Amino acid sequence: MTRYLVGIDNGSQSSKVSVVDEHGVVVAEGRVPLRPNHTPVPGVVEHPDDDLWDSIAAACRIAMDAFTGDPADIAGVGLCTIRFCRAMLRADGSLAQPVLSWMDARVGQPFVAEHDDVAWVTTSSGYIGHRLTGMFRDTAANHQGMWPIDTGTWRWSTDPDAYARTGMRPDQLFELVDPGTVLGTVTAAAAAATGLPVGLPVVATANDKAVEALGCGLRDPATLLVSLGTYIAGMSVGDHDTADSSAFWANFGSEPGRYLYESGGIRRGMWTVSWFRDLLGAGTEAEAAAAGERVEDLLNREAAAVPAGSDGLLTVLDWLAPSDATFRKGSILGFDARHGRAHVYRSILEGIAMTMRERADAMADELGIRFRRVVVSGGGSSSDLMMQVMADVFQLPSIRVVGDSAAGRGAAICAAVATGVHPSFDAATRAMVVERDRTTPRAEHAAVYDALRGVHADVAAQTDALYRRTAAIVG
Fold this sequence. Notes:
Helix content: 25-40%
Number of helices: 13
Number of strands: 21
Distance between the termini: 63 Å
Strand content: 15-25%
């Protein structure tokens, strides 16, 4: 008998649900986009109404409708949701107000009740877990940031100052469990809303980046994961908590006692690629359609013919300035008559790769390790050109794994361990994460990027003074 797992991947753009077999093969899936965030005033970013639950329930129904197997053969469902969110619930577990997005300024501040009937303060995973099971339990590994949690013990702090600092009382907080632990089982009401079988075990996972890392097979400290999404991050794993690092920060991992190390990232990373694509307009869309391809395919094909280094065109990605340098802006430097849209496109990809190489190197130096391979995930990994640029810039093999939703696969791995489908996280990862392909560095390209990285890293130091002046004039 083949056993199946359900992986719920609730991301910033959509909720995705995958039904996978015990070997990690996706047999059914559903995807439902999230509604636009509600942003009535600066600093307030909320998920409107009950959008997180509604989108997850709808995606579950789509996946279950597409599943042709016996629902009795599904062993469990792993739940992964967006990190850094905050949900305020009434005593019965219903929402007292819309869930705060990770982009909402309030999630980084001590909790202050805005409604008299708030009884519980929890994460997005705590809320959705309650909707599925009726239990007030949540994974410890999705509590990073403004929570009174002890990151060494993975349990609520015993220090009264932690509660004073976060504005939360112990009686307002859910029970904590480790990743790979059963939270409860699907209730009749949740089954009616989602199509999941009544009584199906619901399993705790972690924060979405850690679950994505697990779904990419990140088990070895010598492997770097670069997630090419709206936010681009470099990740590694280890077994010790680190609070005083400067080049990375330690987050809970997807296995008890394991930590995810995250380098500095790029905000609006792959958004920049979409931004440039959309700037090209209807003419380029028509040209791509006439060739029977997408605009991205057209740009990748053209940019692959551009020399490494884009004939001197450099792109620095600071489209969304950091809070400690609000004047900073992105730069595209070095135009001359050789350059066209393919050069700009390739230069953006190269800027992403060189930025992440710089930040990954800083993390590796502080950790005292050396990366030997780089796994690439997220939407940007679909580009063969991007995979080659990553290999050339990092001078390491760049690897893709089979399947699109790494977080969904990671959630399924947690469910497989909790329900005994696989005996351990190592065994589950070996069975369910399959390498799709790997791209090897080209020595002649690597030499060009090795020389350019120093120039690229110096650009911000040269332009900061200029952008301070322009910000004072035009903002």
